[in-house]
Amino acid sequence: MLHASLIGIVFASLPQDRPFVRLHDDVVRHVDVPVATTTFAAPTPTVCGNVAAGWHNQAVPGGGTLSPVAFANSANVDGSGRSVFFAQVAGVARNQGIFAADASGVQPIAVGCGSGGGSGTFGGGVGDPTPIGGTFSGFFGGTFFVPATNRAGDVLFIADMDNGPVNRALFFWRRATGTFSKVAAPGDVSPAGGTLSAVGPGSIDDAGNVVFLALGASTSAHQILKWSNGVLTKVAVNGDPAPGGGAYTQVGGESLGFSDGTTIPVGPLPDINTNGDIVFRPLASGAVSRGIVLVKNGVQQWFVTVNDATPIGGTFFDIAAANLSDAGEIAFYADVKVSPTQFSGGWFAGSPGNWRKLLAFNDPIDGGVCFGFGWSRNPMQSISSDGTVGLWTSVYYGPSNSKDEMILIDKTGAITTVAKQSNPTPLGGTYGILDGWPSRLALRGTFGAATPGASFGALNSHFTFTECTPTPVVYCAAKVNSQGCTPAIGFTGVSSASATSGFVVSASQVLNNKNGLLIYGSTGRAATPFGGGTLCVAAPLKRSILLATGGNPPPNDCSGALALDLNAFASGGLGGNPAAFLSAPGTVVDCQYWSRDPGFSAPNNLSLSDAVEYVVGL
User: Fold this and answer.
1) What is the pLDDT of residues 281-327, one digit of tens each?
2) Which pLDDT does position 586 carry in this prediction?
3) Residue 44 pLDDT
4) Which of the four pLDDT bands, split at 50, 70 and 90, describes residue 123?
5) What is the pLDDT averaged over residues 513-531?
6) What is the 8-class DSSP label of residue 247?
7) Do residues 471 and 493 lie in contact, with contact meaning Cβ atoms separated by under 8 Å?
C-alpha cells in the first residue's frame, strides 16, 4: 500500500527525460527509444462531461473524511457511472474500505479498520461483518488491488478479516441485493486439485462471473480459476498444455509478499467479457513463449504472440495483460522488436489478422510526442465494443517538460483528450500527476489525479467522464429497385438506452404497399452480395417487427417509406424480440432495411436500402 508520507518522494522520482513505461504503482521501466521533437499534432478536443467522484477530504457517510490518494490508487467505473475504488478514511476507527462515488456523494460498500491489508494487524472488530464470519479489517491499495466492477455495479475485492475463519478472502458484492459472497479463501479446495494457499484479485463480467488468480501448494503454483454462483472451475494452471505445444510455465507470475508472512498472486490478471470469453497472459515452454490466450467455449488458442508482426513493423517482444471487449477485441501494451538492435513499444488493439496501432513511442500528439505509457492491466478496462480505447500517456515537450494526459483513441485513430496535467479540474485548481490506469465502461470512464489548488482541501480526486456519442454514419450501397428508385436510409433523434422513444431510423424511395423490416447486428459492417444487391450488416443478423411501407394506392411507385423508433423497439414498447445489445450503452449497431419487390424475379425479389451504423447512447 502506498502511504501518504511517501507520495512526494515517489512522484518526484518519476522519470523526466527518458521514455518509460509505468509498470505498477511507482515502479517504472525506461525504454531506450530516441525522443523526436520536430513533428507535432494539433491539439485535441475534450469529452462531453467530467465530474469529481471521490475526493480527498470529502465527507464519508458514518463519519470521517476520504483519503483516496487517487493518483496512486486506480479506480474502475460501473454501468451507472460511479467510480469504484479503495480509500483510507481519516478521523475515525473505521479507517478504510471499498467505496463508490458519483455526483451525489460517496457510498461505502465495505468498511474495515486497523492497519492495511497484509499487515497482520486486524483492527479490533469495528469493521462491517463479512459473509463468512468476523469483520472486515485491512484492505489493499495500489495498482494490483483495484476493485473490479461491471454494468450492474457489482464489486469484487480482497480484504483481510478480524476474527473470521480465515484471515483473508476474495469477496463479491452484488449491488442489486446489497449482499456479499465469498469467492475463495486460503484453504478452499481447488478444482485443479489440493487446496488453495492464497487467493488474488480478479475480473468480473456483467452476469457476475469471476476469473481470478490463486496459488496452489506453493508460491510457484499459479492458477487461474473461475467462480460462477458459488462454483469454482479451473481455467488454467502452471504445467497445463499450451496451445500448439509445450506447457504453461506461468499463468500468473507476479506475486507480492507482506509483513504478515503471506503471499498474494497479483498479476497479470485474466479478463472475462459478457460472452463468457476469457483472456490471460501466460509464459510457455513451446514454440510460442508468451502472448495472450483466448478461452472460447472451453477451447484455448493463442490470440496474439511474441512471434506476430506488429502494425509498426517488427514483431511483438513482450506483451502485457489484455483487456477484452464484448465485441471480442483486445487492447494491450507491448514492447516491439523493430529490428535485431532496435526496440520500441506502444498500445495496440484488434483481433488476429487485424491489429491496429493506437499509439507508440515518438508518435506526435497534442504539440509534443509520446514519452510514457502505462503497462496494460486488469481489471481496469480500456476497450469498449466500438473499439475505442482509453489510456494514459506522458507527452514530451522538451527537456524536463512533459505532461500526463488521459486520452481516448477510436477505431479511426482520432484522439480525444479527457484530462491533461495543468488544465483546470471540476473542483478548481489544476490537474497534477494523473494515475496511469484509467478505466472505461459503456460510454463512461474514470481516472484519478492530484489536484493542486482545488476547493474543499481536495488534494486529489477520482473523476468520472461521459464520452460524446458519435453521430450515426450512413454507409454501403442500396439496391436500385424495380421502379428505378434508390432506397435511402436516414435517421432523426438520438439513440439512448434509457429512453423509450426518440431515435427513428427511416427509409424513403421504397415501393409502396409492401412489407419490410429492419435487419441489424452488433458485429460490424459487411458487403456481401445478396438478392441482387448488397447485404451491409455482418452476421449474425437480427430483425425487427414487421413494418408496412404505405404510400400511394397501386400501381407500384416509390412513394413508400419505412420507419422504426429504435429506442421504443429496444425498450420493448413495440413488441417483437429486440436484442439485448440494443439497450447496452456503447454498443455499435449496424442496420439496413429489407422489403418486398415483386418487380424482380425470385430469388432477387427484394429491396435493400443502404445502412446506418450508430452507437447506443446512455
Assistant:
1) 999 999 999 999 999 999 999 999 998 999 999 999 999 999 999 98
2) 86
3) 59
4) confident
5) 95
6) B
7) no
User: Is there a contact between 45 and 416 (Cβ–Cβ < 8 Å)?
Assistant: yes
**According to CATH, what is the number of the domain 4-466?**
2.130.10
SS3 555: coil
Residue 168: how many CA atoms within 13 Å on its side-chain side?
27
CA distance 503 to 520: 15
Distance CA 194, CA 215 (A): 10
Bridge partner residues of 71 (DSSP): none
Q: What one-character-per-residue DSSP string does 281-338 give?
A: --EESSS--BEEEEEETTEEEEEEETTSB-TTSSEEEEE---EE-TTS-EEEEEEEEE
Residue in this structure with the C-alpha cell 487467493, named with its chain if needed: 199
Task: From 153, 146, 47, 54, select the one nearest 102 (Cα to Cα).
Answer: 54
In contact, 549 and 516? CB cutoff 8 Å: yes
Place of cell 493518483: 71
First to last CA, the chain: 35
What per-residue confidence (pLDDT) applies to 38? 45
Distance CA 542, CA 570 (A): 12
Which residue from 54, 9, 274, 63 is spatially nearest to 151, judged by alpha carbons? 274
- Average pLDDT value for residue range 188-214: 97
pTM of the model: 0.89
What CATH class is the domain 473-615? Answer: mainly beta
Task: Write the DSSP symbol of residue 189.
Answer: B
Determine the pLDDT at residue 13. Answer: 43
Torsion angle, alpha carbons of 282, 319, 72, 169, to 10: -10
What residue segments make up the domains of the chain, in order of their start? 4-466, 473-615
Residues 6 or more apart whose CB falls under 8 angstroms from that of 366 comprise 41, 43, 44, 395, 405, 415, 417, 420
Nearest to 453 by CA among 474, 494, 422, 476: 422
In terms of Cα–Cα distance, which of 318, 299, 300 is closest to 308? 318
Whether the bond into 340 is cis, omega within 30 of 0? no
Average pLDDT, the chain: 93
